[in-house]
Amino acid sequence: MPGFKAKIRIGILIIVVVGICLAALYGFLKPISNGCIMTYMYPTYIPISSSESISPVKYGLYLYHEGWKKIDFKEHLKKLSGVPVLFIPGNGGSFKQVRSLAAESDRAYQNGPLERTFYQEASLKPEEGGAYINLSAFQLPNQYTSRLDWFAVDLEGEHSAMDGAILEEHTEYVVYAIHKILDQYKVSYDARTREGAAVSGSLPKSVILVGHSMGGFVARAAVIHPRLRKSAVETVLTLSTPHQSPPVALQPSLGHYFARVNSEWIEGYKVQTTNTGRYVSDPVLSRVVVVSISGAYNDYQVRTKLTSLDNIVPPTHGFMISSTAMKNVWLSMEHQAILWCNQLVVQVSHTLLSIIDSRTGQPFPDTQKRLAVFARMLRSGISHNFDWMMQLPSYKQSKNIPVQNTKGLTGSLVHRPVACPTNIHWNDGGLDRDLYIQINEVTVLAMDGRRRWLDIQKLGSNGKSHFVLVTNLEPCSGIRLHLWPEKGKSATSLPLNDRVVEVTSKMMRIPSGPAPRQLEPGSQTEQAPPSAVFWLGPEDMHGFRFLTISVAPRPTVSGRPPPAASMAVGQFFNPAEGNQELSPWFMLQSTYSQKDLLFEEAHPLAVKLSFAISLGLLPVTLSLKTVGCGIRNSGLPEEEAGDLESSRLCKLRCFPPVALAWDNTSGLHIYPNLNSETIVVDSSPAHWSSTQQSEKTIVLLLVDPHCSYKSSISISVSAAAIRLLLLYSPKIVGFSIAVVFFALMRQAYSWDLDLRIPSMLTAVESNLTLISHLFPLAILPIFFSLFLSLLMSQPLPPFASFIGITLICYIFANGFIAILILISHLVFFMAAVTHIFIKTRWQMWERNVCFFLIHWFVNRSSSFFSLKMVRVLRANPVLVTALTAMVLASLIHPSFGLLILLFSHFFCCHNALCSFLTASCRSHGENNENFECNSEAYIVSERMKFKFDGSFNRTFPSEENLSNSPDSSKSFGDTQLDLFHHRHGLLILHLVATMMFAPSVVAWFQRLALGESLPWLLDSVICIGVILHGICNSKPEFNYFFLSYTGIPIRNVRLYFVYLIAGYWSYFSGLTLAPYRAFYAMGAVGVISFALRMSRRWNGEKKEVTYSSRKHSHRH
To answer: Could you tell me which residue, 488 or 117, shows the higher pLDDT?
Structure first.
């Protein structure tokens, strides 16, 4: 019965794992609508010739030219005078991917800067140096003074994300390309000088690097390359680039290369000092600015967490921003779409043009200035201030009203509020008709040219100390807001003096949905979606009595009233009234049943939903349905206010809801015109390095207070499955290796206790037993990791989610290994049955005349097998296997050496299983006379008589020779079954190791025709250690060693303890999201096994093995 329960548990586990994988696959295959506009261009690629021998022939360098006219390449190169930008493609990318960025940069240079708006702009945060630099004086130029010259390297589409050696070669060539570009400008300058052409500006001294995917990491690796010229690169922009670790962190050399580059970057931002602490020089990278842009949740290949620059680049020299939080973009996009999405490409092009100093024609030399321009151009005001609006503890602005700094008469710095420009005039005559708002809500349905007065002291009482307004009117040209200490007497002018403060510039832009259509001029339309939000806190309104909202006048259309396509809704509210805490139990219940929330009329305009479980882990499908808008109380006829017309009429009164989701990792995600959307943020909760803030997600709903809504929340199962595999696949891989090591420990421990060796499936299942195995193997390391965090003064991860997700990943890894074991069992059983069937058929037909020629060929081939070299090789199959595997791992590719080891395991398991099945057949035949073991299907009695002279010379060994245990009471079949289980465990371990090298093999085959270099020494050495493990521990008797060295207190070495330590190491490798480090444990186990075998030989035990006593007996 216990065995049956164990099988049921494994079966349920496998079903759950397969179900999660199928749900994730379904989600992956669903089409994604990212909202991007395609970018069009007329590309021409000008090759840059290379005459130096150090340049690899297989790579190339190109200059992009936009235009459909045919040009002379040499003449075009002579005109190079802009700012050089080098594009580096990513994994499998092409140099032609530069075309979208280059084409839009050319259009931006010709058409000039983006149209200026008066929404609140982002600025540098205090930790980024915002307290020491003023951005208010920064204004975009009316025309760009220098164009961008886009270059691109042709890296032959190699898979740089799969092999560390490829990354290193790409870095070498990029360094060469940077030098070549700078030299080309000198050549072009000299050529123009000789021809007497007009020469203006200065030669560029640095190149801007723009890298996509792995190309961004190559750019960073080139910056710290020892052969790069000083100050040759000072600005790096990366698109969907993994900075923290490789997206597929499986190959040891790849992970090591990432760690080495990141380590040098960390050291590069430190002040150079002597051993005694004496100052030597500024940091090596003190002039380098890095900005990373991620594609957010739709980028399945590179998660936002990987694109972060935390602990690599200090905040004073770079930042990461998600495309969903970028100004004028607001979209999440796939990994390749980030290169052609027009909204993002346009913004990036204008950003790069804006960092050019109009006086020199080159990028600003000041680091803080360049970083400030990046922040101003890429960040939006709403994403910059959202955490302040929600009163989150990450940071708080010291002064929320935008100010401009000017010098007073004494030369001191004076702060004055930012006002609308004087060149924007209204028809002030209409502002005489002031309106005095007596309720907490204020509504604007048209541009009526009126000013609305709101008494802060009266309307903001009873805890309603916050004011929020949403509108689709443009700041300054459509709407203006002022704070008054008392009611003013002048209605036609609003002077910016010491008493009246204009706060229009606090309006923050948000993306708006499609505008409603107007059937005919003057007809009423649906409410327009909001495009801006205005937020005032009590600290902003302190010292003021009135808030005025002035709406610009608008002329009538064809003598009719102006169309109701303009809107503004504001409200004084208490934030606590709109807070909704959604507990973990509430979210888990919504997985199988939809949960509803009701918002009655007169609810807060801003409703804050706090999800206790991050939406990056459990995405929710949030739908809002309008259930009432006061239509029945509006005085309309009953038939017009009926249920059938209610929805249509509510659309005329209620503005479309907007959802703003905030996450500390990926920033802001905005969902305009919210009807039914799956809300997901690209956060990274439940990791060892996660912070407490990453556990929750805040969603701010902007909903019309005049209307009532029914909100439905349900967990998206497919989206949750995708997030689980995307976020925690490195953890699952590391845990999978730990599961195999724990199973091998179980097998070795059973052998040490004179018990039968359990199968791998039984060992995996036993490791899931709660008290005896699951707690010490899976739960205890979690608490130890938390203790290490305390010891190293690191922030603790959220306990509940960290422990829960870690255990889920561990159980998932057990299911994955169980599937591998079952598949391999099926393959072995089918191969064994087929082998036995073919062998018995051969024995039946061997005396047939038609097989005479085959016998003659086999006899002739015996002369080949009698050669001395062949006999030596056949007498030492283990040595041949080891040498072949090591040579292939060292000279060709490590995976080929592992494949040889796998074939060795496979043949050993196959022979052992065939012997066990044959012995079992005969045993059943002896115990059951009716069992026809000697039938046509199984002629076992002839098994020992038949013998091939060729490759099948040794078929099934005899019982006298195959029992390796010194206990002669152990049956032949049991011996073979133990041997099968032992080698099968090694096969599963080394199969996982080989699978981890599969991406590297793909890259190796791609480069095979181009001339492959030797593999990295680190990979080869580790794989040799893995091979030694498979060779030196080929029999279960080698799980125990006895050392006879004098002076050594430990004499008995049991390998199950080594497996336990290796399993813990692999477990922690998964926790750190670095599964490639598990290879170190595999190699270490191989080195230990080899050392113990050599130690036994050096002590005179040539071929003897010290066995533990076997006390049990079995029947033959």
So the answer is: 117
